[in-house]
Amino acid sequence: MVMIFSACFAQNSKKPKYIFLFIGDGMGISHVTLTEAYLADKAGKIGSEYLSFSKFPYTGFATTYSASSFTTCSSAVGTAFATGYKTNNLMVCIAPDSVTKLKSVSYKLKEKGLKIGISSNVGINHATPAVFYANNISRTAYYEIGLQLWQSDFDFFGGGSFMHDKGKAKDKQSLEEITKNNGYVITRGIKEINEIPANVTKVVAFFNEDNNVQNLSYAINRKDGEAKLSDIVDAEIKFLKAREDKGFFIMAEGGIIDWAAHDNDAAGTVKEVIDLSEAVQVAVDFYNKYPDETLIVVTADHETGGMTLARTGGGKQGFASLDGQTGSVGVLSKENGRAICDSINNVAGVGFSTKGHTGIVVPVYAIGAGAELFTGKFDNTDIPRKIMKAAGFEF
User: Fold this and answer.
1) Contact predicate 119/233, CB 8 Å
2) Cβ contacts of residue 164 below 8 Å, gap of 6+?
3) What's the pLDDT band for 8 if we cut at 50, 70, 90?
4) What does the alpha-carbon distance between residue 40 and residue 17 come to, in Å, rounded to a whole number?
């Protein structure tokens, strides 16, 4: 029995050259389950329709607690993902002593010669993308965090534009201008990034339609032609693959899952999980071309909302009824959006226990070279350690 177990879980001798880490902010196992049930219901059956990542061959669970609280915040658990060390809630890659700077795995991989891409469908200096290039005592110090972007010398940044571009009081030099002045090309929209000249080696690609709104549109609100996370990841892969010689590391965040779940918006949450699944599929398509050289890991930083299914008891649930909601709670607010959303949640049999985060473990899905390392239950600080081990590097 021991010999069989060892054989099954022996580390793959192949090492990934291309590494993807997808983070579904706030995406618990219930969010994934609901999305699969919704897709099955639309297909006319009871059960689950797999997402791009939920059919990965290796799965595990990661803890989420921070150094200061069993219920974490995104910057604290992001620090664990990025550095392999826990910190207090609200901190960005600063140790609990409030002084010591922690080094992100993205810098370690950059030192090994990999190209680095950091992306999200929310502002590029928001908590989760920030932990992969910045250090700060507070996640809300958006301007100070944004100043560190160009200093990272990373190759690709993509997503929503800078939060507090000119500081909270709008009295400072534009972060965008500073970034341009320090060697980065700024692009806007899908067309510009896809037409980037071959001699450009460092880019910040903004995909939000309205520069006054830093995040991309919620999936449930998105109009035809507006960019989504899969567009960012597609552009990111193309840019980095054309310029790498030793491989690349991509961190891509589906950040709006969390916001929809904070609003207890089941329909909005489902559409965001599907959005993440489509972005992961872009990486899976790449993996299919380079299966022996690619590692894809998909996880969440924490669960948001305390989501439950079958709140209303027995009987067939109408998960597809979530399609009856035509916009996010915020968009529907002029039409009594909270009541509309609650009514549709009830019909679908979806409940929430909180509008905040919870402390339950989150799922981890992996495929490719080194993916077998991501099985079982482990601490979230093990994520970057396992990535480095898979790639054959000391942490």
Assistant:
1) yes
2) 125, 142, 143, 146, 175
3) very low
4) 35
Helices (H), strands (E): how many in the chain? 13, 14
User: How far apart are alpha carbons 82 and 71 in whole angstroms?
Assistant: 18
Q: Domains in the chain, ordered, with CATH?
A: 15-154+246-390 (3.40.720.10)
Cβ atoms of residues 175 and 142 within 8 Å: no
What is the rounded distance in angstroms from the CA atom of residue 331 to the CA atom of residue 337?
A: 7
**Unique residue bearing structure tokens 């980037």:** 196
Question: Which of the 8 DSSP states describes residue 255?
Answer: T
Indicate whether this model's pTM tops 0.70: yes
Q: Where are the beta strands (DSSP E) in 68-212?
A: 115-123, 156-160, 185-188, 203-206
pLDDT tens readout for residues 59-83 = 999 999 999 999 999 999 999 999 9
pLDDT digits (tens, 9 = 90+) for 132-147: 999 999 999 999 999 9
CA distances from 371 to 14, 34, 318 (A): 10, 25, 36
CA quadruple 116, 119, 124, 125: dihedral sign: negative
CA atoms of 364 and 300, how far apart (whole Å): 7
Question: Residue 74 and residue 139: Cα distance in Å, rounded?
Answer: 9
